[in-house]
Design a protein that fits this description.
With 142 residues, the protein is α/β, with parallel strands linked by helices. The chain has helices at 14-21, 45-49, 54-61, 106-116, 132-140; strands at residues 4-7, 35-36, 40-42, 66-72, 91-97, 121-123. 29% of the residues lie in helices and 18% in strands. The structure holds guanosine-5'-triphosphate (GTP) and magnesium ion (MG). Guanosine-5'-triphosphate binds next to helix 1.
Length: 142
């Protein structure tokens, strides 16, 4: 299985997605530091939001096969700059989380992903399990 690093703002749903992909029971746990496991590297949202912490993301991206940009379907703004995918020397995928949320605006999140430069986008709900299989299949591909 390829190793995926998750990046995205605070409460984007990275840790919940990590738990769902691993088949664990979902429970809220604020990410305080980089959580490095065998297949997923989960990062604190502050590393994406705070400029001087972003260097840690660049370093840990080298440890991964795929970089996952995580945007929740109800986020009111995007923290990723346009065309940021070209700064990464790894494959980059977009993951729109929380598609089950009542205030989800999937077309808007999709536009932000396109603006980032993500060509492959996954649509998931860690709560209902929708879209998880597609990510797992993708990570298992050669
Ligand atoms: N409805 C719904 N809520 C979700 C989903 N994924 C996450 N949440 C909720 O969103 C909140 C934040 O989720 P986290 O997974 O902790 O977010 P995070 O990106 O890891 O946040 P940081 O660790 O602060 O960077 C929690 O209350 C989750 O229960 C989802 O797919 N659907
Ligand atoms: Mg987290």
């Amino acid at each position: 299985m390829k190793k995926l690093i998750l990046m995205g703002r605070v409460a984007a749903g990275k840790t919940t997605l990590t738990q769902a992909l691993k088949g664990e029971q979902l429970h809220y746990c604020k990410t305080q530091y980089i959580n490095y496991t065998d297949t997923i590297i989960d990062t604190p949202g502050e590393y994406t939001e705070v400029n001087h912490l972003g260097a840690a993301l660049a370093l840990y991206a080298y440890e991964a096969d795929i970089v996952g940009i995580v945007i929740s379907a109800n986020e009111p703004f995007c923290v990723f700059p346009p065309n940021c995918t070209c700064l990464v020397n790894r494959e980059v995928i977009g993951i729109i989380t929380g598609i089950d949320k009542p205030d989800a605006n999937i077309p808007l999140a999709e536009r932000w992903m396109n603006n980032c430069g993500c060509e492959k986008i996954f649509y998931v709900s860690s709560y209902t399990g929708e879209g998880l299989e597609e990510i797992i299949d993708y990570l298992n591909r050669d």
